[in-house]
Amino acid sequence: MEMSAVFLHLLMAAFGTLVLHMLKFKATADQTPCIPRKFDQDSIVCVCNATYCDYQGIEGGGLLFTYYNTFMTTRDGLRMQRDIGSFDDGVKPNKYIFSVGNETKQTIIGFGGAFTDAAVLTMNSLSADARRNLINSYYDQQGIEYNLGRIPMASCDFSTHIYSYDDVDGDLKLENFKLADEDIKYKIPAILDAIKVSKRNVSLFGSPWSSPAWMKTNGNMTGKGQIKGSPGGEYFKAWANYFVKFIQAYKAQGINIWGLTAQNEPSDGMISGFAFQCLGWTPELQRDFISQDLGPALEANGLGDVKLMILDDQRVFLPYWAETVLNDPNAAKYVSGIAVHWYEDLVVPTSALDRTYKKFGNNYFILNTEACEQDIINKNRSVLLGNWYRGERYFTDIVQDLKHGVAGWVDWNLALNMQGGPNWENNRADSPVIVNADKGEFYKQPMFYAMGHFSKFVRPGSKVISHVDNLPGSSDLQVIFVEREDNSIVANMVNINDQEVYNITITDSMVPGYLNYQIPPKSFVTFIWYRK
C-alpha cells in the first residue's frame, strides 16, 4: 500500500511536470524574439526593420487554475520573456510576502502615446513595411496593445514649424478653419492605421498648445499670453468653437475624438518669454471658460459625451486646481477628468494625488497625459539608445501613479529620429522608439518594454486592488496589483537594485498554495493568474 502511494505521488508529479512543459511550449509559441543591439549604454535595444520585428504574442486566456504566467524584462537583455509556473502547496514562503486583498480602487482607462507631427513624420521616413511594424508594435494584439492616443491640436514644439488651424486675423466665426497638411497627410493616416490593427477600442484625445496668435493678448503663439477679453466674450467663444471644429473635422476623416484637455500646461503661458507654443490660464480662468464657453459649446453641438479634462500640467498644482474648477457646479458638470504630467514627479510628493483622489476620485478620473526623458543641458545626449534607467523611471512612475489614484499613463512622442526630433525649437527628447531612417530600421528602447508591461496586461476596465506586504520602507522593489474584468490578477514589479535578488512569495486567498519567485536585479516582472 505504501509503495502504491509513492508510485501515485510520483505519477502525479510527472503528470504535473508534463502539463507545465506543454503549457510553456504553447505560451511561447507565438512570441518573436528580440534582435539585440548594444550602443554605448548599459542595456540593449531591439532592432526592427521592414522584414523583422520582435513581438510579444497574444496573451490569450484559459490559463489553468493555480498556474501563472510571467513576463520578464531585464537590463541584461531579456525582453518580456514569457514563462509559466504554478502555485505550490507544501513549500515554505520566501522572505518577502505579498498577500493580495479584495478592496478595489480606480478603474484603469489605459496606456498610450502621442501622435505628434514629429512622431508621424519620423514614422513616414521608414519604408511602408517598416512603418507598419512600428505601428503594429504599439497597437496590434501581437504588440504591446496601446489603447490611448494623444493628438496635439495644431502645432507644438515637436512640429517642424508653428501653425494653427485658422491664421486669418479676426476670423471670430472661424470661417477659415481647416486642418493642416500635418493632420491630413501624416497624423490622420497613422491614427487610422493604429485603429485598424487594434483589437481594443482606441481612445483619442486632443490637446491645444496655443490658440491662433490673433486670439492671444501678446499676438504670438509663443510667449506669455492669454485669450483676449474675458470668459463669455467673443474671443473666448471663438476659442471654444475651435475645439468643436477640431472634433468635427476629425470626425469627417473617420476618427472619433474620445476626450479633450482644456489646455496643455496652462502654467507655461504665464511665463514671460516662454519659448514654445503656449496659452496662459489660471484655475479660476479655466473654470469660467469651461462653465461659460467650452462646456456649453460642446453640449450645443452634440459633443457633451466628450471627456473633458482640466489642468494637463504638473501635479504640484493639485489639489488646488481641481478644487477651484470642480467645486463650481457650473463648470464641474462638463468635466470628466484631471490630467497630469510627470516632469516634476521626482520632487512633488504623491500626497498631491492622494488628496485629489480622496476628494474627487469617485466622480472624476486622473490621467497622466505626458511624459518623456531628455537631457535639458546637453541636447546631443537627449537620445540614449539602450539606457536602462530611463525605462526604470517610466516603470516606477507608473507604479507610483497607479498606487495613488491615477487611471492611466500616456507617453509623449510615439517615435523620434536619432537626434530626438524633429523639433522646431531644438527641444529634443528621447522616445520608446527611435528611428534610424538611413538604415531603414527602428529601435525599441527599455522605455518601450516598461510601457508594455502595463499597456498589454493592465487592460482597460481593470481595477487597482489592495495588498499587504512586509517589504522594508527602503525597499528597491516596487509593486502594483490589479484585478482584470475576467477575474484574473496582474502583479507588476520592478527591482531597481543593482545587485539584490528579491525572493518573494505571493499569496491569494482565492488560489491555494504559494507563488514563490526570484526577482533578479534591474528587472521588470509581470505575473498573471486566474482566481476561482
UniProtKB/TrEMBL annotation:
It comes from the Eukaryota. Its EC number is 3.2.1.45. Pathway: Sphingolipid metabolism; Lipid metabolism. GO terms for biological process: alcohol metabolic process; autophagy; glucosylceramide catabolic process; lysosome organization; negative regulation of macromolecule metabolic process; protein catabolic process; regulation of macroautophagy; regulation of membrane potential. It catalyses: a beta-D-glucosyl-(1<->1')-N-acylsphing-4-enine + H2O = an N-acylsphing-4-enine + D-glucose. Residues 1-29 form the signal peptide. Residues 108-458 form the Glycosyl hydrolase family 30 TIM-barrel domain. InterPro entries: GH, Glyco_hydro_30, Glyco_hydro_30_TIM-barrel, Glyco_hydro_b. SUPFAM superfamilies: (Trans)glycosidases, Glycosyl hydrolase domain. Keywords: Glycosidase, Hydrolase, Lipid metabolism, Signal, Sphingolipid metabolism. One of its GO terms (molecular function) is signaling receptor binding. One of its GO terms (cellular component) is vacuolar membrane. The keyword Cytoplasm does not apply. Belongs to the glycosyl hydrolase 30 family. This is Glucosylceramidase.
